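Bit of a strange request maybe. I'm writing a small parser for structure token strings and I need a real example to test against, not something I typed by hand. Could someone generate the tokens for this chain?
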Amino acid sequence: ADSEYLEDQFYFGLTYNALLEKPGAITQQNLSYGIQTGFIKDIPLNSSRTFALGLGVGYATNSYYSNLLAHNENNSISYEDSLADIEGVKRNKLETHTLEFPIEFRWRNSTSTEFKFWRFYPGIKFGYVFSGRSKLVTEADKVSFSNDDLRDFQYGAMINFGYNTFNLHLYYGLNALFNDNVTLTDGNTLTIKPLRLGIIFYIL
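Reply from user aminoacidic:
Good idea to test on real output. This should exercise your parser:
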């Protein structure tokens, strides 16, 4: 048996993205989703290697479909809480592309020869949003622009838990998607935070 084995060094995940703490008039539409993938360095902390620290780097793209309408006029962005005045709306979303740095505190009942085991990996995740866009698609037109109001640095708490191949992934954003003092045209501050729930696959 290999006493120097490492676990779960690559990951791939799919999530449903919910928006929390949104103004009352903001509603989600369509299916907001996320995709994440990356590499985690497994650092065992005991001789049996059932407890470890995971330090990772990865990439994620997240889309949030809602009736939060962004306007960009003369490089000034404003936000409304309704699509009711626009004809033929197909979809309206915010989209982010993020460089992520997960840190996991890993417990598992694995051995060097057993590939099916329970895992419980709570942790935190830091993210740098290197690209953020607002996009509106109607039957007649497509409007898309880079959105600098989205917060560059985001972080949150996460838990990855499961058995064998399929594991649940939960991420709760601890800071807002938007920069401070970004408001709707009615004055409500956009303190929206993401909640992501899905599945994550770990690969040796």
